[in-house]
Amino acid sequence: MRAAWRSAITGLALTLTASASSAAGPSVTAAEWETYKQRFVDPSGRVIDNANGNISHSEGQGYGMLLAYLAARPDDFSGIWDFTRSELLLRDDGLAMWKWDPSAHPHITDRNNATDGDILIAYALALGGAAWQREDYLRDAAKIAKGVLGRAVADVGGHVVLLPGARGFRAKDREDGPVVNPSYWVFEALPILKLLAPSEIWDALAKDGLSLLRAAQFGPARLPSEWISLREEPHPAEGFDRQFSYNAVRIPLYLLRGGIVDKPLLERLSKGMTGPDGKVSVIDITSGRPVEPLPEAGYQIINPILACVFGGTPLPREVTEFSPAHYYPATLQLLGLSFVRENHPECL
Prior knowledge:
Elements lengths: L1 H18 L10 H11 L15 E2 H13 L3 H14 L11 E2 L7 E3 L4 H17 L3 H17 L1 E4 L2 E4 L16 E2 L9 H7 L4 H15 L12 E2 L5 E2 L6 E2 L6 H7 L5 H11 L7 E4 L5 E4 L3 H4 L1 H10 L5 H4 L6 H17 L5
Antiparallel strand pairs: 1-2, 2-3, 4-5, 6-7, 7-8, 9-10, 10-11
Helix pairs in contact: 1-5, 2-14, 3-4, 3-5, 3-14, 5-6, 5-7, 7-8, 10-12
């Protein structure tokens, strides 16, 4: 068994080395991480969603661990993982309960998982395990990855899809099921998780997730909705706002961070989510019109990153300065800056 884990560590290290850029040092700066930690990470290791009633969730814990890894802060990583493991990883299938509310008793208010959170946690554990020679992190990452394969992946008409949760999204659960959220595909994580839970399903999941994004062109803006029904042809799911909203904004960033530079797809997403004022906004799928501006830098950084990738345009100062107000756009901003530092330092 120990030899197998050494092989996993070696495989991860080689993968990370092959994908590394010439950027020296951490891709999240010490100052950025300290600001993020002071504002959004409780001393217990709880990552706080301060725009959502100060709850914590598996997505936030995974993001916090990933950013701590990118900032080369193993002690902070360990603290966030300790809270995650003791407070959320309480299911018997390897997945995390997704919602933890400080004002509720017990604190867990939804025992279902959120699959993007599970993927982020497992991915961060895999990276940390390889970087810091922590076999325990790799074992825990593998357990979560196996849980995702067993409980949150489904075959729908010959296509492999990611269910947003183990319960509530299958054909048997909903009249318009199965239902998926395309922003849950964390493309950069899938090859890493395949090293820990070997299966060709990970490759099919990446391929079919990309195919779904290429096919989901709803309304005048030709955007995917956040929640998509896969009963018959893909279409916006019932019971959800017919919008390209907060979650969906991260799709272009996930594609780029996953090494998927599909110019027609990325340009279509960029054009569709950008209002007449040139700013990224929540978009109504039916009308194609903006319904809510998204002024924070973490949202507005997406289009400048695309301009950098496709044209070498430097990022404007307003999206490179890190003065965050809310957890989620702050996270996207740091993931975006990390990507540019690692892959396009000429744009800074």
